[in-house]
Design a protein that fits this description.
Layout: H1 11-26, E1 43-46, E2 51-56, H2 67-73, E3 77-82, H3 99-110, E4 116-121, H4 123-134, E5 139-145, H5 153-161, H6 165-170, H7 174-186, H8 189-199, H9 205-210, H10 216-228, H11 232-236, E6 243-248, E7 267-271, H12 278-282, H13 284-297
Parallel strand pairs: 2-3, 2-4, 4-5, 5-6, 6-7
Antiparallel strand pairs: 1-3
Length: about 300
């Protein structure tokens, strides 16, 4: 599955990862588990003054995905950047990862402020939409990057059917997808998290490493419950706060913007040369300007 902050690795690099993992396993490296800590979400907090900003990452990512943007905004905003439950350094319980389950972990963070700008990327857009609906007195505005919107259920199946093997299988057979995931990523995770930064120099090191820090349950059920089973366009229609959606013209993981019937209550901008993750990872200055312009155009 290449949703959210994807690693654009050539096939040769993936082969190197697999071979490297096999060699290290043979010489005695313990492979397998993730840390399964308990307690609240792992949260990064940057900045001490200005508006409150909550950043919600996508699938196969962590809060580290937002660090380039946060560095641009930390002098003028207080940024709260959690690793979603099941991802990064946050707890990874064996659960069904429904919308309510995710929101239950995020809700305590809203108590730290009174007027939030919520920024979502990919899957995080779904969570942002529902935080706005459930807490209209605390969420002031939404800024959604690479929103997972689709013209129809058939179009969604077509788009995911053109992705990699794990993604295609995940939409058809849970048993087969789990076998693929657990026999590759899960078994070689300690190796993959170490090698990914060196094999993906175009991606910030922590982002590359955290691409593999999830479990089968957190990946599969978050994908199903938040992406495959939801209609984000319908979820956004009741939202009354200002919404700005930024889509990439080269994003192959979501519907082309011109094919979407967007709700009238939001603004959409398409950046023609960007894909699903490149704006936030590689042009955080431009992304920060979009955030500033949106906040300043929303009168108190």
């Amino acid at each position: 599955m290449r949703h959210a902050a994807r690693l654009q690795l050539p096939r040769r690099r993936w082969l190197e990862l697999a071979l490297g993992g096999a060699v290290l396993s043979l010489v005695g490296l313990r492979v397998g588990g993730l840390e399964h800590r308990s307690g609240p979400l792992f949260v990064r907090r940057l900045g001490r003054a200005g508006s409150d900003v909550l950043c919600l990452h996508g699938l196969f990512a962590s809060g580290a995905f937002f660090l380039p943007l946060a560095e641009q905004l930390s002098s003028e905003a207080r940024l709260t950047i959690p690793d979603l439950v099941g991802f990064g350094a946050s707890p990874k319980p064996n659960a069904d990862y429904t919308l309510d389950f995710h929101l239950g972990w995020l809700t305590p963070l809203l108590g730290e402020g009174t007027s939030w700008t919520v920024i979502g990327h990919s899957m995080g857009c779904v969570l942002a939409a529902y935080l706005a609906r459930r807490f209209p007195d605390r969420v002031r505005r939404l800024l959604l990057f690479s929103a997972p919107v689709y013209a129809s259920a058939e179009s969604r199946r077509r788009i995911f059917g053109s992705q990699n093997v794990l993604t295609r299988v995940s939409t058809r057979s849970e048993l087969a997808a789990r076998a693929i995931c657990e026999s590759t990523v899960c078994s070689l995770r300690p190796v993959l998290t170490r090698l990914a930064p060196s094999l993906s120099p175009h991606v910030p090191p922590q982002v590359a490493s955290d691409y593999f820090r999830h479990t089968w349950h957190s990946y599969h059920w978050s994908f199903w419950r938040l992406i495959l089973e939801r209609d984000l366009l319908a979820d956004l229609t009741p939202v009354r706060q200002p919404i700005l959606v930024i889509q990439g013209g080269r994003d192959t993981l979501v519907e082309a913007s011109e094919r979407v019937s967007w709700p009238a209550n939001l603004e959409v901008r398409v950046l023609a040369r960007h894909d699903h993750a490149s704006l936030l990872l590689h042009e955080p200055g431009l992304a920060a300007d979009l955030v500033r312009g949106f906040v300043q155009s929303d009168p108190a």
